[in-house]
Each structure stands twice: as structure tokens, then as C-alpha cells.
Amino acid sequence: MNTDVNSPSSRSNSTAKRFRQEKNSTQTLKQPQAIRDQIREVEIVQSRLVMVALLAMLLLITLVARVYYLQVAQHDKFAALANDNRVNTQAIAPVRGLIFDREGKLLATNERTYNLEILPKGIADMDQFLAD
Q1: Contacts of 106 (CB under 8 A, 6+ apart)
Q2: CA distance 48 to 46
Q3: Which residues pair with 99 in a beta bridge?
Q4: DSSP 13-55
């Protein structure tokens, strides 16, 4: 008997074994699969849905709590900020002096002026406001 690993008979035996193994593995693939446990799969899906629903509820509760905090608890702070945003004061540059030409003729003069802007949507009774 030839015990050489590289001999032709040894190679043909190993090739035949490999062919039989491949044939057996393809036959096992063709066999019907075991029936799935549908009840267990439904339980898994339901547990995942419950987890997602709990996460969504947690996020919703967090959002509602934050809105409550900003709208109710911090109302005074944001009302003051809104009022400061509505009332706008501007500094006016100081008087610069008179401008004369070379002959001493007055070309430009400075006059104090005042501008008042009233927004109608902020006044309930415009006639009463103007009378005061």
C-alpha cells in the first residue's frame, strides 16, 4: 500500500472524500427547515414595541416638562427679555458745532430734534394715549 501523501491514489481518495462531504452538505441544505416558534417571535416583537413606546413616552414627557419650565417657571425672565427687546433706546451723537465757510458765513447749524415712534399694536386706546 502506498502511504505517500502526494501519490495519485491518495489524492483521488481525498478528492472523493471532499466530494462526498460537499454532496452531503448540499443535501442538508435542501432538507426542510425546522418550524419557527411563532409565539416566541411575537413575544420578542411585542417586547421591542413596548421598549420603543416607553422611550417615546419618556421623550414626550421630557419635552412637555421642558416646555412647562420655559413657559411657566421662567415666565418673568422671558417677559422682561421681551420687554427689553421691544423698548429700544439709542444714544445720539453729541452736538458737533457750527460750520462756517472761509468768509465766516454760516453753512450748517445744529438743532436738537426729538423723534418718538409709537407702535399702535402696543397701545390699547390711542386717543387717550395722545391726550396724555
Answers
A1: 98, 99, 100
A2: 5
A3: 108
A4: HHHHHHHHHHHHHHHHHHSPPPPP-HHHHHHHHHHHHHHHHHH
Mean pLDDT in runs of 10 for the chain (132 residues)? 53 66 57 74 95 98 97 93 78 80 91 81 83 80
Quick one: how far is CA 31 from the chain centroid?
50
Asked whether 77 and 86 are in contact (CB, 8 A), the reply is no
The answer to pTM > 0.70 is: no
Distance of CA 122 to the CA centre of its chain: 35
Cα–Cα dist 14/18, whole Å = 6
Cell numbers at 128, concatenated: 387717550
> 123 CB contacts (<8 Å, ≥6 apart)?
129
Q: Are 101 and 107 in contact (CB under 8 A)?
A: yes
